[in-house]
Amino acid sequence: MFDGLDHRADIEAESLLLIVLGLVVVWIALEVVSELLGLLGWLLGPFKPVLGLAIVVIIVLWLTDRL
Predict the structure, then answer these.
(1) How far apart are CA 63 and CA 67, in angstroms?
(2) Four-point Cα dihedral 40, 45, 49, 55, nearest 10
(3) What is the per-residue pLDDT across 9-47, written as a single tens digit (0 to 9) for each?
C-alpha cells in the first residue's frame, strides 16, 4: 500500500553535501550582514529609533499605494 514512501535514504552524498554547503554559505552571509548592521548601528547611535520609524512609514506608504 505505501510501497513508494519507504525510500528514506535515497539522497545521494553529493546532494547532501551541496545542501550542507548551501547552509554554511547562508550562515556566513548572515554573520557578515550582522556585523555590517552592528557597525551601522554603532555609527547611527541615537538615530536608530528614527531610522526604524522611517522604515515603518515607508512600508506603510508602500502598502497603501501612496508611495
Answers:
(1) 8
(2) -30
(3) 677 878 888 889 999 999 999 999 888 888 877 877 878
3-state secondary structure the chain: CCHHHCCCCCCCHHHHHHHHHHHHHHHHHHHHHHHHHHHHHHHHHHHHHHHHHHHHHHHHHHHCCCC
Cβ(36)–Cβ(29) below 8 Å: no
Pick left, alpha or beta for residue 45 (phi over 0 → left; psi -120 to 50 → alpha; otherwise beta): left
pLDDT digits (tens, 9 = 90+) for 51-63: 788 889 999 998 8
Using a cut of 0.90, tell me whether the model's pTM lies above it: no
